[in-house]
Amino acid sequence: MSSTATPEPEPRTLRTVRRKRHDDSLRTAPRRKRSKISEDSFVARGEEGQYEGTGDANGHALAGGRKVSGPMNGDSNHQYLNGNLVVRGGRKSTATRTGRSDGAQVLTQNANYTIKSLPSTPRELKRAGNEFRGTLSVSTGQALAVTRGQAFIWDYTSHATVTHPRMFDVPFSVKDADPLPFGALVTAGTSVETGLLLMSAAAGHVVFHESIERAASMGLFQERKPGVEGTITGVFNGEHVTALTAADSAGFIVTFDSGRIAHLTLRDMQGKVRIQAQFLRAGSQVKTSIFDSIKGALGAAAWKMDSATVRTRAAGQRGQTQVVAITEQADMKVWEVDWSGRSAWTGSISFRNQLVDELRRSYSGETQGQAEQLAVLDYAFVEQQQASDAVEVHTVAADKPLEVLLLLRVGHVGQQHHYLCEMSLGGTSAVIKQMHSVSSYQSTGTKTSAAKLVLPRPGHTAVIIFEDAIVVAALIRPESADPEAQFHGDESYIAPQPFQGAIYLRSDKGFAFTGVESEDTRSAVASCCVFVQGTGLMRITVNDSTEDPGLSQISTKSKIEQAVFFGVLPDNALDLSRYEKKTRTQPELETAVLAISHEILTMQTSMIPSSLVSIEDHLARRAKALNTLIAHVRSSYPPLSRETTWRLLWDGERLAAGQALWQVSEKHKAIARSEERPRPTLLHECVRMLQDTEYTAVKQLDSSDEQVRQMFVLQLAHLDKILCHAYSVVDDLTEEGERPLAFILRLASEADDIWISVLETALRFRVENAELYGLQSDTMPEGILTEDAAYIKIPEFWTSGQTMMKSITLLTKLAGQISESAYEAETEDLCSKVAMENAQLVQLTCHIYEERIHWDRSRGTQRYVAEAEALQEKAVKTRTEQLRELVGIGQLPAALHLAEKYRDMCNLTTMIVDEATYLRQSFVETGEVSKEVVKPRMDENAARIGRYFRKFGDEFGNAMFDYGLMTGNAGDFFRNAQEDWGKYLKTWLRADPARAKLCWINDVIAEKDYAHASEMLTVVATAQEDSLWSKEVELSLAKLNLLAASPINPTSTDKRPMATLIESELLITSTQRRVYAYLLPEIHAAIDPSAELEIALELYARTTRKYHPTLYAQLENTLGKVVSHIALSLEELIDALTLMDRYDTRDPDTSLHESAFYLALQLLNVNWPHLDSDRADYLLRLIWKRVYVSTNWGTLNRNHESRPEEETHDLLRNTPLYHTIMLGTEDLLFTQGHTTILDPPDVLGAGSSAADLAYLQYGADWLAGVIKDNESMDRTLLSAIEKYKCAEWTTECKRLALADLEIHPEAEAADRQAEEEAEAGMETSTNGHGPGKGVAGEWEGDEEREEYVLEESEGEEGEDAVRVDDRWARVREGDSPNWAVKIEDDGEETEQAAGSEVEDEEGEEVEDVSMGED
Prior knowledge:
By secondary structure, the protein is an alpha+beta fold. The protein is built from 43 helices and 36 strands.
């Protein structure tokens, strides 16, 4: 029989007549009877009668008569019962007959094919790197492997590893660089003996042992060698053997790499052993001259032809064999040889062109040229089913054609594709019947010339062995489930394609294919064996996929199952993670993965045996399968959706939780059995309730232990129901009140263990395996996602369902009550255990609430958002109650830890302050002995409070001191705080300026830090105080504290900035007092503050109200604060001084007629160091801008040239500009201060841009109004500059002020001395302030000023009444203030108020030059 082709019926000869009488079988009758195959011998996976090992459901019979059935799951030690239930014992069922197992390990299995690793391979051949060449003798059931030094022969059908194979030394030397030698097992005639043929691939040496039995008994080291040696003559230098093909009784056909073919016979004409060989020559290769001899002497290169693939088959006459060789270039050559060594050339045919033309149709456009790159790699005969035992010979010249299957390689290097071509060759014609593209395999290298093709009987599927993969390709298109579907006119109809599948070798351990042989199974299952370097012999069995259209491809689920359950085998040579995935859709992938995961969880898969004796091992194996599943899918397929990922993670959580629960169950069971009266555990009762209340398609068992075991195998998907039943049982028994408290306490302890073990394990599994599942562990630090967005598109969590949330809340409360009520001496330890576990339950309750709240919020609908808000309130309330209950059962540290963890400052401060209060009272009330016990606890509590202050800072301090204020005894609390937590109280008080009022008191009383007290008082006065009187008092106290902080040198450099700030703020308050004194004579008769404001606005805001509405509203607010004694800011006070209308009052001490703008500049000068440079510059420009706008430039310019100089000077001396320059120059404000005199062009645009006003944080509408009013002033000032020589008058005003100061130096000096003496006399009431050089005088209080004004009014009642009434009459009649002047224009007098428009000499309207325009 051929070593690589399907065996042919042997021709009838003298040596085979007797053998043919037994239906062409080598088996004896008894053996055949023993191996008879019936339908009862095959049992489907998972059904009754499954093999004790892991038998293949599709066993097959070998030619030798042995029944072979492969393992189901690769484990021969598994024990099965008739159902799925895991039992403790290993008793075998006797009700059903079991089949025999071949002990083979399944490497991969699906509905189309099964690959097993046969156990018989000797260990020597499984070593990594051990090269060998293998072949089979199917008729004898023996295998041969030839290495460089030895030949191994063993029974490959053995069910165990052959530890002592027959070993023969290779009788010739083989270099490491030489190819491996060839070998073959030889059987001939009626002899039952098997011979051994060994051949050198490099030198052509041949050794033949006629009987391996005799050779083994005689020994190869005796002087008489049992084998016959010979040499193939005519082998060229460098020519190597590439194949050794059996030719039945005609011997062997030897193929060389040069393309030459030799016929090797092992016996002579008399039947004696003799090695002879001759080269087969085609008609054109017969030597006819001396030149042929010379060509032979030149070596193999001179005779180099296309490499060829040789197959043999029996010819028509007895003893004759047909040799068919097909070259790479698609040339077929045929010879006939016989056992005597004679050979005859019968013809040849070339069919390359037909193949190229056919392949061109598979390419389009420019790629059609690849069809020219064609090579035939291998071929096989396609056997035809015969109706009788008669043998029909198909030759080239015969009437009936020869059917062959070709393996083709097409395309350039790197772009090569493979095809299977069925051809019919007859006469001189070649007909292509069918072309199959090998699309399932993608070559990773260029050594595809080593590919081998076998077509095992019955011929429905071809097996291709590439360098790194096995391809199983069906040759017949499967029948459609709907034969008429193709006629329905549906363009989307796709006919089922023949099945193809590629199985790759692992590339990391040096595995390689070294040989392949077909097996004759005499059934519908095709089978072949493959030799693999590094692992031994594999068997591939392929089912007929033509009968079922669903077998046209392997489902995604099946492929993933193969990788998960078989790919993890440590000695599996197959790489099951490499699959073509381009046809898999994402929904199909995710459905398959979820189905596999759920089947593993619920043990609905047949890939894992359910009969493992140990539940612990059973759960571990399932957990490993789930880990392998997600790892394989993530590494080999596109990313899964978030929903699918979480569903897979939940299955893993449940299985991990089941493992933890099993350990708890065993512990509870041991405790229950050790009691005087053994009782069932709580878990037994929960499982019983689960089977009573939940529909589960599982077998109901009477034994409670078996029910529990069944739950761990089949019902882990219902873990949440188990937990809820645990609470229900304890609650029901507690309400009944018939059981002792000690019994209830034990059940409560078991319930705690069940809940804690399941939930903590599940949450821990999430964190530890997040990266495995493609999730980020930092987004769920304790197994709970912390962001609402992370819950989007995720179904409801099994760990936080409504029932789970309700049950754990009630169990936590119930367990705490039981622990407290059942406390006795004999139950102390158990009560302590339940109390400590109660803290864990509180933690889990918080987790469940948190998870559920996030999930509800992520839904986005109104219903779920409302539910989340309600749950949030309930969670806070529940946590508060549970923390208080923990304190009640002696778990204060745990309660504090939880409050600290969740930053629950309310509960944390309540518990810590109450504990501190309790310890302080205990320390005071107890004796010395008890104090020694309480003092360490007080120190520990104080240290804990310090840690909270450092960790939470203001958050804890606010809550703690707020709680202290709510206790009703704030004074004692803060006194204790100063004594016990002074450092933290100081830190808390100084952390926020809002606490400055308390902080400065603590600084003075407890810390004695007067400098910081001064700073805090300044902060209170400048940033927090509204009352003008309170601000003055606080600034005065700040000044006193600053003096107390530096008694030796009150003006030290480090205190000077604070001192100047205080002085500047005091100046602001004193100036505000002066503004009020200015208003007081007119408003003192008003009945309320509203009337005062109305009078003030009527008298002092007429111009602003008329021309600048937004600034008027601003001035109204400012004057309202003035009459209400509310402290003003710097900007507000400047507005009051520069926007008010100025009247010359009767009291020069209170009049602002001349000094308003000067006082504004004085305020800015003193506050300049404390302002931002841009802010200070803006205010300076704004003040001078309003000075210029307030000056009536028209009066100065009228008749200027004809007016006497002295009169002009008098007019200048009555302008606001002169008064401001004069007072500022006299007070050295412009030479020694920060302020300067700005010229009119320099102040244009002040306050007219958003950038200038940005720091004031006005609203958009208000900002626009202010800018508009300031732009109006800009237009007025610009008109004054352009038409009335404003800049020149400013220069003249400066010169006049300096001249006036020089003329009256003595008078000025006397006046200044008088002022200083007056100020010295008023020092006690004015805090030492004086006007000028940044210091303003402090005026009398409001009440004193009012009394003074009233006294003056009473003394001159009549005169004052007339004066006031006259002034009011003028106001009502619309009379202008004193700075409104008459302007004569062409002999006509017109009254010009500030901001009005007049006509120039040509009669055109001109803009007003004072205070803007209408």
